[in-house]
Amino acid sequence: MILDDALAHSDDDRIEAMFTAVHCVAQDQQVLVLTCRQRAFAALGGERARVTLAPICV
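Above: the chain sequence. Below: its structure as tokens.
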């Protein structure tokens, strides 16, 4: 499952319900959460990806 800022405009109750659902799905599937709200999603746990972009010479 890939979530791309899916909960950006959700209230606390909806975020909590979605975290519960994501934890259930993560038991047997890979879950990727793309977000700029690091503190809000820290409770999900997991590993934070480190990405380095390099210029492409053409």
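Strands lie at 2-4, 32-34.
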